[in-house]
Amino acid sequence: MKRYSVFAVAREAMRQHSGWGRAWSNPEPKTSYDVIIIGAGGHGLATAYYLGKNFGITNLAVIEKGWLGGGNTGRNTTIIRSNYLQDASAALYEKSRSLYENLSQDLNYNVMFSPRGVMMLAQTQHEIRGYQRTAHANSLQGVSTEFIGPSRVKELCPIMNIDGPRYPVLGALWQPRGGSARHDAVAWGYARACSDMGMDILQQTEVMGIRQKNGNVVGVDTTRGNIACKKLGMVVAGHASVVAEMAGFKLPLESVPLQALVSEPIKPCMDVVVMANTVHGYMSQSDKGEMVIGGGTDGYNAYTQRGSFHHLEETVRALIETFPMVSRLKMLRHWGGIVDVTGDRSPILSKTPLGNTFINCGWGTGGFKAIPGSGWGFAELMANGESPLTAGFGLDRFRVGRFIDESVAAGVAH
Ligand SMILES: Cc1cc2nc3c(=O)[nH]c(=O)nc-3n(C[C@H](O)[C@H](O)[C@H](O)COP(=O)(O)OP(=O)(O)OC[C@H]3O[C@@H](n4cnc5c(N)ncnc54)[C@H](O)[C@@H]3O)c2cc1C
């Protein structure tokens, strides 16, 4: 694989860009692999990457029914933060955020990580207390956040109306090294690195069945034939319940649509990410100038990857009070993804009832930020059977009632 560098760009500029190779190969499936990962979203690809990089496992296929990154990974609003309340979550999300800091260099692919700062607005007394508590927890966990007052909020984000009639801004939980990254680039960067290690990424290949023998998986039935494997990872987000059902077990999950929208591009006016959880909306500005806007999940279960118009209207209406300029923006497009939500709003990174099969799901509305950390921990779990990063996130927690309650950090926020 040709390394991307300023010299490579200059060399290619001299010869009409005729020397770039494909970023990843498009192979025919082999009959068997040591490891199969179902799902070429960010989490599946990151798992494959760290299995190769940290454990030398490269006889591996990532199987994807559509195109890589075409699920939630390519549909999210790219917020990255690690200001969670519980210790297990903060460890996982902070590991992830710290990997994002050098991900472009690690993958030799510009993922456009932009640590511009994330603030979660406190617009009720209840939120002030909740976020102050989180800031204290974060300082014990080594996560750098602080609770800031309204004047600092206004200074950081001048377009905001902090004196709204219903919900004036009373402060915010501020994480200066939170931010965003380019979502497709994260998937593409991992895919390119995996392909370079000799792994096969099989796009347009749907897993239709899971073959088992004596309590272990022996392979998968796909639209391109049967493929054998020694270990299986299921990393399919909104379709986790569907794939688990093929393997004969159930998951404590709901699959619901979550949507986002962008405005027409405008001049730079906002260089932080703002989440307003009381009114249920959040916003940032993309490098192209579009205002990237999101809200809460739709109120029903579905597998259609689009959102409802009434929710769109509610989200924009909610934001207008805090960002009056939104009322004068034309909206350009909206889209949806199917998110997999657990009862405690924390993910599942777990062994399964089948001996050699593991599942990574339940990221709900907030798994983009977790891609590098989840890949790191889940690869360790798959390779060694345990990982300190994933220890609390097993399926057994729903049986014994050991929940990791992140309904404040993740119920509305992404
Ligand atoms: C509108 C929206 C906004 C969001 N905003 C944020 C945000 O700001 N910050 C944040 O951290 N998170 C956010 N999220 C959540 C985040 O996008 C997801 O948690 C994350 O992308 C999940 O990644 P994944 O790799 O697990 O899943 P996906 O990217 O969905 O990948 C799963 C893949 O599995 C494939 N698959 C499914 N079934 C099969 C099968 N049978 N055979 C083969 N392949 C199969 C799918 O095609 C898909 O490509 C948002 C999500 C949405 C929808």
Describe the structure.
The chain has 414 residues and is α/β, with parallel strands linked by helices. The chain has 2 domains: 31-79 and 85-107 and 183-252 and 344-410, FAD/NAD(P)-binding domain; 113-179 and 254-342, D-Amino Acid Oxidase, Chain A, domain 2, CATH 3.30.9. It has helices at residues 6-14, 42-55, 87-101, 103-107, 125-141, 150-156, 183-196, 240-247, 309-322, 371-384, 397-400, 407-410, and strands at 32-38, 60-63, 79-80, 118-122, 146-148, 171-175, 179-180, 200-202, 207-213, 216-222, 225-234, 253-265, 273-276, 281-285, 290-297, 331-342, 348-351, 357-361. The strands form 3 sheets. Strands 1, 2, 8, 9, 10, 11, 17 and 18 form an 8-stranded mixed beta sheet that branches. An 8-stranded mixed beta sheet has the order 5-6-4-13-14-15-12-16, sandwiched between helices. Strands 3-7 form a two-stranded antiparallel sheet. A hairpin with a 4-residue loop joins strand 14 and strand 15 (290-297). Helix 3 (87-101) packs across helix 10 (371-384). The longest helix has 17 residues, at 125-141. The structure holds flavin-adenine dinucleotide. Flavin-adenine dinucleotide binds next to helix 2, strand 12 and strand 16.
